[in-house]
Amino acid sequence: MVLANKRIVLGVSGSIAAYKGADLASKLVQSGAIVDVIMTKAAMEFVTPLTFRAITHRPVVTDWYDSSSELSIQHVQLAVEANLLLVAPATADIIAKLALGIADDPLCGTALATQAPLVIAPAMDAHMYNNPATAENVAKLKERGAVFVGPGHGRMASGLVGYGRLSETPEIIAAVRQVLGKHGDLAGKHVVVSAGPTEEPIDPVRVITNRSSGKMGFAIGEAARDRGAKVTIIAGPVSVPYPLGVEIVPVHTALEMRDAVLTSIRTCDVLIMTAAVADYRPVTAVERKIKKEDMSSLTIELTKNPDIISEAKGDFVKVGFAAETEDLLRNAQTKLQQKDMDLIVANDVTAPNSGFNVDTNKVTILERSGEMLDLPLMTKEEVAHKLLDRVAMLLTHRAKRPAKATAL
């Protein structure tokens, strides 16, 4: 959502990784961005302008003066209209020119003329990246506010293994979203999110767990990141990739999650508990694998896990989730009151395309004030932003509260 209608200028320079720029442009367009591509002459040795024109449905800038271009003075107009300049892949040569303020092609000229934030994704031979001259140029650009993504470590076209690979598309787009959302309505706030299931060990092989995938919590973490927040995600064992640009605290058991949550909330402004924490755990975990042939039946004595959200207390906005299979709103309302929450998100996990292991959700948001927002089925990213809209409003109201008098 943060990319919708944003003007992204994508600079593609002469690296073998230039072909990956096409995938990057495609994903940006799919996310709603308006993408203008500037290619260096060297880049055109690896991929044609027609490729990018077909993807972006916009003219590709390859020369200073193109009489057929819809842009009067290309580098100036793009520089003014851009919300962000992304250089990917960025060669050692382009990074040096950007650091020195050289403007001998449309890409460098645009970079020199724009006031938009600059994101750079390097791609070059490992020895070139490790050269002191490149390190100095990178440091100089960082001092001016440029954001670098990567490079990654791995095998390069030359056969050399080291740092110099272009970062993957999701990592670059995550950085773009984070930079664009830097001054969002959650800027300066610390948002803590719990996500995924917990695992309670029976023996070294078997655990008690649940169907939570972590997708809803991760969507909230990404959305908060895109709105300017510092984000900490306390993640149980999940099979989906961790979000980028956030702090991840991995845990397994409910007790580990409780400790991590109670530590993280010391500095937080918002706590959002989406994790499906196991209600019970075995009293004792067996040290060796229980052999099937040694038993005709198995009895496990369980003890209750702590109610983490009830224990979490402080001057922050507290949000819980109620995954129910019946009496959805009544059960959610009870939890909202008993656990002293500001908001609770209720969803029927038996509803089609809602709940665990899917990318959509159908939820109702209930507030302490009695207000209720019933949302249609939508993506978890959309749900995350609807929830954060309410959180941002609560934070604004808290900021307007009169300060407490101090006793003399």
- CATH topology annotation of the largest domain: Rossmann fold
Shape: globular
Question: Any low-confidence stretches, pLDDT <50, length ≥5?
Answer: none
Biggest sheet strand order reads 12-11-8-13-16-17-19-20
Radius of gyration: 25 Å
Distance between the termini: 50 Å
The CATH architecture designation of the largest domain is 3-Layer(aba) Sandwich
Tally of distinct domains: 2
How many runs of DSSP E, i.e. beta strands?
Answer: 21
Query: Percent range for helical residues?
Result: 25-40%
Can you count the helices? 13
State mean pLDDT (0 to 100 scale).
89
In terms of DSSP E residues, the strand content is 15-25%
The major sheet is characterized as: 8 strands, mixed
Query: What do we call the CATH homologous superfamily of the largest domain?
Result: CoaB-like
CATH class of the largest domain: Alpha Beta
Structural class: alpha/beta
3D structure, described in words:
This protein is of the alpha/beta class and 408 residues long. It folds into two domains: 7-180, Flavin prenyltransferase-like (Rossmann fold); 190-399, Rossmann fold, CATH 3.40.50. Helices cover 32% and strands 22% of the residues. The chain is built from 13 helices and 21 strands. The protein has helices at 20-30, 49-56, 74-81, 92-100, 106-113, 126-130, 132-143, 169-180, 215-226, 254-264, 308-311, 328-338, 380-399; strands spanning 7-12, 34-39, 84-90, 118-122, 147-148, 152-155, 161-165, 190-195, 200-201, 207-208, 230-235, 247-250, 270-273, 280-282, 302-304, 317-324, 343-348, 360-361, 363-367, 372-374, 378-379. Strands 12-11-8-13-16-17-19-20 form an eight-stranded mixed sheet, sandwiched between helices.
